[in-house]
Specification:
It is built from 4 helices and no strands. The chain starts with a helix and ends in a 7-residue tail after the last helix.
């Protein structure tokens, strides 16, 4: 067994970097976006349809929510790629 095979066995324990299905459309996506975030959807609709109507404040709130969500998704993407490279030897792929 070559040194590279020994190192791969120790680091990756026989798992491949693209084993199984990775990517966005899993069962958890439906749970998160359909159930967990339902109160957020109701809150956003209420900002624009409730009384007194505060469109400027509603747009500011939506901007903050989009900014926070984007920051979290991008940081999770970067961490996922780093974990894939460090522990599995290559970046995760969808196929």
């Amino acid at each position: 067994m070559a040194l590279a095979d020994t190192v791969a066995t120790v680091l990756y324990h026989g798992y491949e970097g693209t084993e199984g299905f990775t990517g966005f459309p899993n069962e958890g996506t439906v749970i998160i976006f359909g159930v967990v975030l339902l109160p957020i959807y109701v809150m956003i609709v209420a900002w624009f349809t409730g009384t007194p109507r505060a469109t400027k404040t509603g747009l500011l709130g939506v901007t903050y929510l989009v900014g926070i969500a984007t920051a979290m998704w991008v940081s999770m993407l970067i961490l996922t790629v780093l974990i894939g490279i460090i522990f599995y030897g290559q970046a995760p792929s969808i196929s």
